[in-house]
Amino acid sequence: MRRAKKIKKAVVVSITPQLTGELRYISYYTGRTMVLSVEIVDRDWAMNVLGQNTHNRNLKQARVVENTRLMAKGLWGDSNDAIVIAISGNCTVLINGQHRLWGVAESGVAQQMLVIREAPMEMQKHIDKGTMRSFGDTLKLFGKVSSHYNDFAAVIARVRGGLNNTYGSASHQELEAFFDEHPTAIHYGVEVMMPPARKITKSAVMGAIARSWYYVDDKSLLRRFAEVLREGVPENKKEATIIMLRDWLLTHASSGGVAAAETYLRTETAIRTFVQGKELQKLQIAERELFPLPEQDAAWGRQNGLTRHTVAWLKKRYAEGKEAMPETDALAPEDREGEMVVASTVSASDQASASDQASASDQASASAAPAGAS
User: Fold this and answer.
1) How far is CA 106 from CA 96, 103, 305, in A?
2) Which of 26, 33, 360, 364 would disulfide-bridge 11, Cβ 3.0–4.6 Å?
3) Mean pLDDT score across all residues of the chain
4) CB under 8 Å to 312, separation ≥6 — which residues?
C-alpha cells in the first residue's frame, strides 16, 4: 500500500515583535526565506508599492471602483489574501494586490492588510487558484438563511436593483448590508413561492413580490397571488390576471438581463392589478417601477409628501438613530402618480399606525419560520 507523502512544515527562522507583527519563514517548496507581516496600508504606502507594479495582469477598473466604494463606506474587513511583493533580480515587484492598493489610494482610507515580502516570482503562478465563495455560500455560512441559499442571493440582488439586476455590480458586503435592511420583505418574497415550481419560481418574480410587501396592507392577497401563480388553480375571474402571468412565464425564457427585467415588470403589473381587484384583457409591461423601496420613495416624499409605507420605514430608522425625520410626515394623496398602495378602509392616521405594525402575523411567520420552507 502506497504511503501518503509526509509534508514538512515551514521552518520559522525568527519572530520580530512589532506594532503589527512580523514573521520570517522558509518556504517548503522553494527553500526561500520570506517575510510575513500585518501592516496599516495608507495612500502613500499604496502608491509607493504601486510604483513597483511592473509584472501583473491588466487592471480591472470596475474592481477598483468597487474596492474604493467599500473602503469609503467602511465595509472592508480582514482577509487572508495578502499583498505580495516579490524579488526579481535586484528589484522588488508587486505580484498580488493591485486592485486593493488602488482602492486605498482612491478612497484615502487606510486599511489593515497582510503583506508578504521577498517572495519568489513563481508564487504569482499559484495566486487566485482557489474556488471563490458565492454570495449564497456567505448567506449559508453565516446563518443569514436556513435554506434556498442561491435563491435568496438572486432575490436580494433583484430587490436591491429593481429593474436593474445588480448581482454583478454589487459586492457581497453591499448585498448583505441591503439584506439586513430589508429582511422581512425578502424572506416573505421567497417563502410564499415555496415549494418552487419549474419556470415559475424565479428571482424576478420573488423580487417583485418582496418589493410589493411594503405596499400591500393585506398580506393574504400576496400569499394568494403566489399560491395561484405556483399551482395554476384560480377561484374567480379576478385571479385570471395571475394565470396570464403564469402562462407567460411557462412559454417565455427569463434568463438574461432584458428577459429578467421584463419578467419583473410583468409580475409587478399582475400584482398591482390583482390586489386592486381589477381585470386585464392583456398583461402589459409596467412603464415604470411600481414598487420603489422605502428609501427610494423617501427622497421623493421629503419634497412632495410621504406615503404611509415610507413613514413607517422612516419611523423605524428614526427610532434606531439612522435617519432624521422630516418636519412633517403628512401623507401624499393615495392616488398620486406612481403610488400603488392598496388602501385600507380606515383613516389616513390609522393607516400610518397600521403600517408600523404591518400585519404582525405575516411578519412574524416570515421572520421566524425557516427561510424558504414550505
Assistant:
1) 18, 5, 38
2) 26
3) 79
4) 294, 352, 355, 356, 358
* 159 vs 181: CA distance, rounded Å: 12
Q: Which domains are delineated in the chain?
A: 11-126 (3.90.1530), 135-275 (no CATH), 294-339 (no CATH)
Q: Please report, in angstroms and rounded to a whole number, the separation of the first and last CA atoms in the chain.
A: 50
| 279's grid cell | 381585470
Closest CA to 260 of 162, 130, 116, 117: 162
If you write DSSP's letter for every residue of 280-318 in order, what string do you get? -SS-PPPSS-SS--HHHHHHHHHHH-B-HHHHHHHHHHH
Rounded distance, CA 238 to CA 241, Å?
Answer: 7
Q: What is the CA radius of gyration of the chain?
A: 26
| Residue 355 clears pLDDT 50, i.e. is over it | no
Task: Give Cβ neighbours of residue 186 (< 8 Å, ≥ 6 apart).
Answer: 152, 155, 156, 159, 179, 210
SS3 235: coil
**What's the rounded Cα separation, in Å, for the pair 267 and 226?**
11
What pTM does this model have?
0.66
Instruction: Please say whether the beta carbons of 93 and 54 come within 8 A.
Output: yes
Rounded distance, CA 63 to CA 75, Å? 15
3-state secondary structure of 148: coil
pLDDT of residue 188: 96
Q: What is the pLDDT of residues 274-303, one digit of tens each?
A: 999 998 888 888 878 888 888 877 665 555
Place of cell 454583478: 168
pLDDT in tens, 48-63: 999 999 999 999 999 9
Alpha carbon distances (Å) from 369 to 65, 194, 205, 357: 38, 12, 21, 18
Residues 131 and 117: beta-carbon distance below 8 Å: no
